[in-house]
């Protein structure tokens, strides 16, 4: 089901955002981030997130477009239960390059990065969550979906799902989200990358 961006609920709305039925554009505010404790010792819950409710057993997909140039510039898809249990996945600029990044937080955050492809200024992210298992995939064209992460994630009665963006080191990142869908969990074999 295609999601109307105008129907979401903001957590930390940016000063500049325009939600239309089929797209969301936003500009990040100063020093925004989501992180809990691990390695750095701090907790941040100031990133931008536009959430839509979903029950367990869903697949969410979104297209992300932007120019990521500063350390930790990031945008993607978030699944959130509360401030201590969430995942964010998408593009992140680190070590002078763009990576696909996933942070899963269950009390404390972890972080993984990969580069199944390097063209990361226009791409798709897909999350499938069912029965405590989360599959994270990315795509350049919306057809071929390499696996980024398979991980446990807490079972909850309801989740908030939607676009997220953060700029821990600056403000002013412009991002466009589109082609946002939430539907029943796909049941394809783990190695079926379609």
UniProtKB/TrEMBL annotation:
UniProt superkingdom: Bacteria
Database matches in Pfam families: DUF1349 (PF07081)
InterPro entries: ConA-like_dom_sf (IPR013320), DUF1349 (IPR009784), UCP022704 (IPR015987)
PANTHER family, sorted: REGULATION OF ENOLASE PROTEIN 1 (PTHR35332:SF2)
Protein name: DUF1349 domain-containing protein
Species for this entry: Rhizobium lusitanum
């Amino acid at each position: 089901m295609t999601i109307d961006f105008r129907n979401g609920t903001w957590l930390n709305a940016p000063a500049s955002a325009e939600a239309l039925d089929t797209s969301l554009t936003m500009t990040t505010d100063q020093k925004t981030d989501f992180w809990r404790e691990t390695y750095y010792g701090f907790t941040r819950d100031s990133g931008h997130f536009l959430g839509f409710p979903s029950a367990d057993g869903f697949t969410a997909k979104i297209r992300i477009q932007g120019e990521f140039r500063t350390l930790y510039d990031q945008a993607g898809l978030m699944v959130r239960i509360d401030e201590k249990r969430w995942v964010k996945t998408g593009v992140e600029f680190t070590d002078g390059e763009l990576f696909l990044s996933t942070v899963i937080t269950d009390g404390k955050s972890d972080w993984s990065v990969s580069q199944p492809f390097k063209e990361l200024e226009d791409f798709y992210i897909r999350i499938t969550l069912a029965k405590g298992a989360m599959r994270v995939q990315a795509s350049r064209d919306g057809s071929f979906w390499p696996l980024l992460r398979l991980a446990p994630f807490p079972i909850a009665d309801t989740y908030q799902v939607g676009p997220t963006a953060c700029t821990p080191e600056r403000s002013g990142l412009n991002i466009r989200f589109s082609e946002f869908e939430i539907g029943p969990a796909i049941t394809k074999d783990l190695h079926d990358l379609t």
